[in-house]
Design brief:
This protein is of the alpha/beta class and 252 residues long. It has helices at 3-23, 28-34, 46-60, 94-101, 134-146, 157-163, 184-194, 220-226, 228-244; strands at residues 38-43, 64-69, 82-88, 108-113, 125-129, 152-156, 174-177, 197-201, 210-212. It has two domains: 3-113, Rossmann fold; 125-243, 3-Layer(aba) Sandwich (Rossmann fold). Helix content is 42%, strand content 19%.
C-alpha cells in the first residue's frame, strides 16, 4: 500500500458508492439472496469484513446466513439449497478460490470481485478453446477487437501447443481458456512453468490465475451457449472505460 494511493481510494469512495447504488438501486441481488434457504459468504481480511453486515442483514430478513473465513478447517458443507458467495477484491485469493471450488456442482455459487481488469493491461489477449467449441474462442477474441479495440487472437487448445506456445515465453502473456479439451493440462503445464496468466471460464482448472465459474458448463452444449457471455461483459466494460477516457481508437 502506498500513501498517495490510499488517499485517492478514500477520496474516490463517495463516487464509487454512488455508482454501486445506481447499479443496484432495485436491490434485486439482495432480494434474490433473501429468497434462498441458506447463504454462506466466505472471504479473507477485508473481504470477510464486508460479508459480516451483509449476512447480518440477511438474517434480519429470516435467511440462515453466515460469514466464514475461507481458510477455516471446518467449512460449511455444500448443499443444493445453499448459496455460496465468495468475496475477493483481487478475484484470485487462493483460500477463497478453493473455498468456492468446494461448492461447485452442488451449491449455487456467486463470485464477487473488484477486479474488472483481468484483460485490460495485456498487450494481446489470447483465447483458447477445444475444437468442438472453437467458436467460443473466435467470438471472444472478436468481441475484444470489435468493442474496446483491443488486440486479441483465438487458438484451438491442441493447436496452441504447436503454434502459440512460443508466445507464452513473453512476459505478461494472458489468455482466456475455455476448459474441456484433453490438452488443457498441457497448456497449464507451460503456464505454470512460464508464469503465464490463464483465466479459466466455466469448470475449475488447476493452476489458473483466475477462475470465472459458470453453472452448468460441465455440459459442453451449455458451455457453448453461455461461456462467451463472460468475455462480452468484460469487453463492454473495457469499451466503456475507453470511451470515458476518450481513447482515440474509440472516437467516432
Amino acid at each position: 500500500m502506498k500513501h498517495d494511493g490510499f488517499v485517492r481510494d478514500i477520496l474516490a469512495a463517495p463516487e464509487r458508492l454512488a455508482a454501486c447504488l445506481d447499479a443496484y438501486d432495485d436491490a434485486s441481488t439482495l432480494d434474490d439472496l433473501a429468497g434462498a434457504r441458506r447463504v454462506v459468504m466466505t472471504g479473507m481480511g477485508s473481504s470477510r469484513f464486508a460479508a459480516l453486515p451483509a449476512t447480518a442483514l440477511l438474517r434480519s430478513r429470516g435467511v440462515d446466513a453466515v460469514a466464514e473465513l475461507s481458510s477455516t478447517g471446518l467449512p460449511t458443507r455444500p448443499a443444493t439449497e445453499l448459496v455460496a458467495v465468495a468475496i475477493s477484491a483481487s478475484g484470485s485469493t487462493p483460500e477463497t478460490v478453493d473455498a468456492l471450488a468446494r461448492h461447485r456442482g452442488v451449491s449455487r455459487t456467486v463470485a464477487v470481485t473488484n477486479d474488472p481488469d483481468r484483460l485490460a493491461t495485456a498487450a494481446t489477449t489470447y483465447t483458447i478453446a477445444p475444437a468442438e467449441r472453437l467458436s467460443s474462442a473466435l467470438q471472444s477474441a472478436l468481441m475484444l477487437r470489435e468493442g474496446p479495440r483491443l488486440s486479441a487472437d483465438a487458438t484451438e487448445t491442441g493447436d496452441w501447443l504447436h503454434v502459440d506456445v512460443y508466445l507464452s515465453k513473453r512476459p505478461g502473456y494472458t489468455a482466456l481458456l475455455f476448459p474441456g479439451s484433453r490438452f488443457d493440462d498441457g497448456v497449464m503445464a507451460y503456464a505454470r512453468e512460464r508464469g503465464s496468466a490463464i483465466v479459466a471460464i466455466g469448470p475449475t482448472l488447476g493452476g489458473a490465475a483466475q477462475h470465472v465459474p459458470l453453472d452448468g458448463t460441465d455440459d459442453p452444449l451449455v458451455a457453448l451457449l453461455v461461456e462467451t457471455g463472460v468475455t462480452e461483459l468484460v469487453a463492454a466494460e473495457l469499451w466503456r472505460r475507453g470511451v470515458d477516457r476518450a481513447d482515440p481508437a474509440l472516437v467516432p
